């Protein structure tokens, strides 16, 4: 089937392909399971083995070490997950396999045995590796090259991720802390099962996306899979790899949320509100809540900025996101200073930090996902998405190492160091941004508005970005 006919056959809802919403809810439930488990994992590891809700009784450093390694492996597994999709299964079948592995992993994690604990974590690593890069690549595949709706589609998809994260931090976090950690893990398994069922039911809306391109009957796709990379494609790959450095730095700082900041909320924050103690895991929901509130606002801001002819390229957004997120750690510096002088810090420092982290994330993360689908060659589409998530994984490991260093350096030093480094690094990349953007050979210069609200974008040659 020709590309034009393929996109014409897609049913639309609210100006976007219906398939976007199938992927939206699949990812929402997957993130419900992942972030629900993440919200209680470190707290479970450090909880006393003899307490009313017994954990493993590990030290903070031990817990953060495992957390960093586990979250790194979760995302590094996206490289083989993307490779398997590109070479053998296609993205659609890979997402299905990943969903099944995740249901099994979260289910086994609910068993109160150490073998089940490590087996469950292993299955979750494999499941996320198969699902995460491929479902994101499928979102990009719903849109033609140059379709301005692509960035908006990723923002909608990103909101789905965070609805799942918001609900899971509240529900799974509460169940885990109050009724038992393993009940929380089991609840995460139920969430993933719902996502898998929803994905299977919605397959008719994903007929033309995520298929195995090695078996494609489209002559253009077959040719693209076999020929060597062109000079333009190689230049774009260089830009992608440089942008991945931004990704590692960003997530190395941002992922303090599930580790050091999670423990800080539990041990050093005054969580009393109107005579009731707020569960520490609930602070994990702030990021997701702010994304739901501000996601469309930030997307609209960038769209209006572009219409006015102001800088709104992906690299600019990503650098600005890193700077804003870094500034959020200055609030944690203030929290650590207050703890030193008063013996406890106020909750509003955490709220402000998460707010800045969220605005920074909205500028970088969905933009980076869309950027990859614009620059990556067709033959390496899923693999490059996998590399992106692997860089996220390395950032998670960096986050764990930084969290561990707080035992020796103290939270004040760690939080301040993160803030300063992120702001300075973001500014340095901004200085070379134009040179990097020249290497993209106009990948973002011809974005068109197709099927959505008429924002005055001109229709460009649909083959302009097919290097």
UniProtKB/TrEMBL annotation:
State the membrane topology. Multi-pass membrane protein
PROSITE patterns for this protein: MFS (PS50850), PTR2_2 (PS01023)
Q: Which domain of life is it from?
A: Bacteria
Keyword annotations for this protein, in alphabetical order, are: Cell membrane, Membrane, Peptide transport, Protein transport, Transmembrane, Transmembrane helix, Transport
InterPro entries, per the entry:
Dipep/tripep_permease (IPR005279), MFS_dom (IPR020846), MFS_trans_sf (IPR036259), MFS_Transporters (IPR050171), POT_fam (IPR000109), PTR2_symporter_CS (IPR018456)
User: Pfam families recorded for this chain?
Assistant: PTR2
Asked whether the keyword Protein transport is assigned, the reply is yes
Parts of the chain that traverse the membrane: 67-86, 93-109, 115-135, 156-175, 181-201, 237-254, 282-303, 315-340, 346-369, 381-400, 412-432
Its main subcellular localisation, reduced to a broad class, is: membrane
Residues annotated as region Disordered? 444-467
Q: Where is the Major facilitator superfamily (MFS) profile domain?
A: 19-437
Q: Where in the cell is it found?
A: Cell membrane; Membrane
Would I find Cell membrane among this entry's keywords? yes
The family classification in the record reads: Belongs to the major facilitator superfamily. Proton-dependent oligopeptide transporter (POT/PTR) (TC 2.A.17) family.
Q: What is this protein called?
A: Peptide MFS transporter
Q: Which organism is it from?
A: Aequorivita aurantiaca
């Amino acid at each position: 089937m020709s590309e034009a006919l393929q996109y014409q056959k897609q049913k639309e809802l609210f100006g976007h392909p219906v398939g976007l919403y199938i992927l939206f809810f699949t990812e929402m439930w997957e993130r419900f399971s992942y972030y629900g488990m993440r919200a209680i994992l470190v707290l479970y590891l450090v909880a006393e083995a003899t307490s009313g809700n017994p954990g493993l009784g590990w030290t903070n450093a031990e817990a953060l070490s495992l957390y960093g390694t586990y979250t790194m492996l979760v995302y590094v597994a996206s490289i083989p997950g993307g490779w398997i999709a590109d070479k053998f299964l296609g993205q659609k079948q890979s997402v299905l396999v990943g969903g099944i592995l995740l249901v099994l992993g979260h289910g086994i994690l609910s068993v109160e045995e150490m073998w089940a604990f490590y087996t469950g974590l292993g299955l979750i690593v494999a499941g996320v590796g198969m699902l995460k890069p491929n479902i994101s690549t499928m979102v990009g595949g719903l849109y033609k090259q140059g379709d301005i709706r692509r960035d908006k589609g990723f923002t909608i998809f990103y909101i789905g991720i965070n609805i799942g994260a918001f609900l899971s931090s509240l529900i799974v976090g509460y169940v885990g802390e109050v009724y038992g950690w393993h009940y929380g893990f089991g609840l995460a398994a139920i969430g993933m099962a719902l996502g898998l069922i929803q994905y299977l039911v919605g397959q008719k809306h994903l007929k033309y996306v995520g298929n195995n391109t090695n078996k494609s009957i489209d002559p253009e796709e077959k040719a693209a899979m076999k020929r060597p990379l062109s000079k333009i494609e190689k230049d774009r790959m260089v830009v992608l790899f440089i942008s991945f450095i931004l990704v590692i730095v960003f997530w190395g700082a941002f992922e303090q949320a599930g580790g050091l900041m999670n423990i800080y909320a539990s041990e050093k924050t005054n969580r009393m509100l109107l005579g009731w103690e707020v569960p520490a895991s609930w602070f994990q929901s702030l990021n997701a809540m702010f994304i739901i509130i501000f996601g469309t606002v930030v997307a609209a801001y960038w769209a209006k900025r572009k219409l006015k002819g102001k800088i709104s390229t992906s690299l600019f957004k990503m650098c600005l996101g890193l700077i804003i997120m870094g500034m959020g750690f200055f609030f944690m510096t203030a929290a650590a200073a207050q703890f030193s002088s008063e013996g406890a810090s106020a909750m509003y420092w955490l709220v402000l930090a998460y707010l800045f982290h969220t605005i920074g994330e909205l500028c970088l993360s969905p933009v980076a996902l869309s950027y990859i689908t614009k620059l990556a060659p067709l033959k390496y589409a899923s693999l490059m998405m996998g590399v992106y998530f692997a860089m996220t994984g390395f950032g998670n490991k960096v986050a764990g190492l930084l969290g561990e260093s707080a035992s020796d350096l103290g939270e004040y030093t760690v939080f301040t160091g993160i803030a300063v480094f992120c702001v300075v690094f973001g500014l340095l990349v901004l200085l070379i941004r134009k040179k990097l953007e020249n290497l993209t050979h106009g990948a973002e210069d011809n974005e068109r508005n197709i099927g959505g609200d008429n924002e005055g974008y001109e229709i460009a040659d649909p083959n302009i970005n097919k290097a």
